[in-house]
């Protein structure tokens, strides 16, 4: 087989060796009569599918980074092992996508040079393992973290227009090796089949924008106000969560609401704590090793005050931002203790921010007493009741009677036959569509969505008109003065037409030139 013009024997040999794992020159290849068989073509098709499979997983891996802190916490509760598993995920994904990408590029270059695609058996085994690993990752995602499928749907509202342009560009580049293969193959049926599949795919891509919707395709003057920020357990990227330092850092980030979790000690003192056990965010294993596995509510307030609620933050580094904290903040973090609800209410009152909280655990046998004790602390604190946002559903009617000024936030969508008007809802960002957010906004219902950490997600919800978002990254979202992207519909239409026309002309040119 003669090399096509512009493809030297040395270059072809260098491409063939890593793909076939054999140092064979072009002359030896010709002498041996090596050529691409149907079996080789099937392995190339499998390579292409594995590449697309890993590419889709890479997209999912980037999307789920917004929620990965929840996964880290889940693993800690199960295994008592803290690790930033997002790094493991990204490194493994990068290795898989790099490997399949390099093999695919080698195969396409070999096809352009007119050389056989003799994939080595080692690569075949590794490709099968790659496909199995990615399939296992998707299966695990579907079983243990099914809500991330909804996250992917939300992400398409932010990335859809750009994914379309990128896919058109990729298919356009694929026209060159495809044309080379079509002109070289002797099978008329295969030639016609490949052309029909390619044309059908391109037509579908050219018409895809008809089905692409994004809330950020709008005019500048239609953009809703920027959503308010709710500090998830304060500012947990800058200070230990659910501490007074975290509350103050959240205030510095211009948050309007401090979101936290409340438990009640054995002697009736409400305090801030998210986990039912104290092991993740305190040194309870060192101070009370025999009681470390007990529920947080089993400790009295005197015992809780002996615990260090800040050093874990510096040791485990739950977020990458911990490494860049100034020395003063590190010293302050190391001194943090578990705050009582009364202390948090006083700090919120002085900072003039609202406080929103869950009362946990909901299934406790003495939960009604927890509600009464918590209400008593709120009423005694002197904080304006309109600054208190009440999340717990249990005994809500009692709360309305004892503290009528408290604002009630519901963790569900409004019902069709709602007896009492719902003014505030607090939901996962995956559970509300852009259309529902707009409708709630028109009906003057405040919508808070959680947990929103990535600027792309914040931008989509901003364009949708959400009232506020709960975030771990208040210091990041504070700096956003505008959504990441905002396109008028006419501008997007022009981009769509230009991309389609240019790609069509280049594809025609590729087929003509390769002939």
TrEMBL record:
Gene Ontology biological process: lipid metabolic process
Key word Transmembrane present: yes
SUPFAM superfamilies with a match to the protein in the record: PLC-like phosphodiesterases
Domain GP-PDE as annotated: residue spans: 227-481
Record keyword Hydrolase present: yes
GO cellular component term of the entry, any: plasma membrane
InterPro entries per record: GP_PDE_dom, PLC-like_Pdiesterase_TIM-brl
Locations listed in the record: Membrane
Gene3D superfamilies with a match to the protein in the record: Phosphatidylinositol (PI) phosphodiesterase (3.20.20.190)
MF (Gene Ontology): glycerophosphodiester phosphodiesterase activity
Family: Belongs to the glycerophosphoryl diester phosphodiesterase family.
Protein name: GDPD2 inositolphosphodiesterase
Species of origin: Phainopepla nitens
Organism lineage: Eukaryota, Metazoa, Chordata, Craniata, Vertebrata
Gene name per UniProt: Gdpd2
């Amino acid at each position: 087989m003669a090399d096509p013009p512009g493809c030297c024997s040395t270059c072809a040999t260098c491409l063939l060796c890593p793909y076939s794992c054999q140092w064979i020159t072009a002359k030896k290849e010709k002498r041996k009569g090596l050529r691409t068989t149907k079996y080789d073509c099937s392995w190339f098709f499998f390579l292409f599918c594995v590449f697309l499979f890993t590419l889709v997983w890479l997209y999912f891996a980037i999307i789920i980074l917004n929620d990965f802190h929840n996964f880290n916490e889940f693993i800690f509760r199960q295994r008592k092992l803290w690790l930033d598993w997002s790094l493991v995920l990204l490194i493994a994904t990068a290795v898989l996508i790099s490997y399949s990408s390099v093999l695919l590029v080698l195969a396409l270059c070999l096809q352009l040079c007119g050389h056989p695609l003799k994939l080595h058996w080692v690569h075949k085994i590794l490709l099968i393992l790659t496909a199995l690993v990615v399939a296992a990752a998707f299966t695990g995602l579907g079983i243990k973290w099914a809500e991330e499928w909804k996250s992917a749907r939300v992400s398409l509202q932010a990335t859809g227009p750009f994914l379309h342009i990128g896919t058109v560009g990729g298919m356009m580049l694929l026209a060159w090796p495809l044309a080379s293969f079509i002109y070289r193959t002797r099978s008329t049926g295969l030639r016609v089949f490949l052309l029909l599949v390619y044309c059908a795919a391109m037509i579908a891509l050219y018409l895809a924008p008809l089905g692409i919707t994004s809330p950020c395709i709008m005019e500048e003057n239609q953009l809703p106000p920027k959503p308010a920020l709710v500090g998830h357990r304060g500012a947990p990227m800058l200070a230990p969560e659910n501490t007074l330092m975290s509350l103050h850092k959240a205030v510095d980030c211009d948050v309007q609401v401090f979101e936290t979790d409340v438990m009640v000690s054995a002697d009736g003192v409400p305090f801030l704590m998210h986990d039912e056990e104290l092991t993740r965010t305190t040194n309870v294993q060192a101070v009370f090793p025999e009681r470390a596995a007990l529920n947080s509510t089993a400790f009295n307030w005197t015992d809780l005050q002996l615990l260090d609620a800040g050093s874990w933050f510096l040791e485990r580094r739950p977020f990458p931002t911990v490494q860049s904290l100034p020395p003063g903040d590190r010293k302050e973090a190391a001194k943090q203790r578990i705050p009582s609800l009364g202390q948090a209410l006083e700090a919120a009152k002085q900072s003039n921010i609202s406080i929103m909280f869950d009362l946990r655990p909901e299934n406790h046998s003495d939960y009604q007493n927890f509600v009464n004790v918590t209400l008593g602390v709120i009423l005694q604190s002197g904080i304006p009741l309109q600054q208190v946002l009440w999340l717990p559903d249990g005994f809500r009617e009692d709360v309305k009677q004892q503290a009528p000024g408290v604002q009630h936030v519901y963790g569900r969508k409004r019902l069709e036959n709602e007896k009492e008007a719902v003014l505030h809802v607090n939901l996962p960002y995956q559970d509300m569509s852009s259309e529902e957010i707009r409708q709630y906004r028109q009906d003057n219902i405040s919508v808070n969505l959680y947990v929103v950490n990535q600027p792309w997600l914040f931008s989509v919800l901003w364009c949708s008109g959400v009232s506020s978002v709960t975030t771990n990254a208040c210091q990041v979202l504070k700096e956003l003065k505008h959504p990441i992207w905002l396109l008028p519909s006419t501008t997007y239409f022009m981009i769509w037409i230009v991309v389609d026309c240019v790609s069509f002309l280049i594809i025609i040119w590729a087929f003509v030139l390769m002939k």
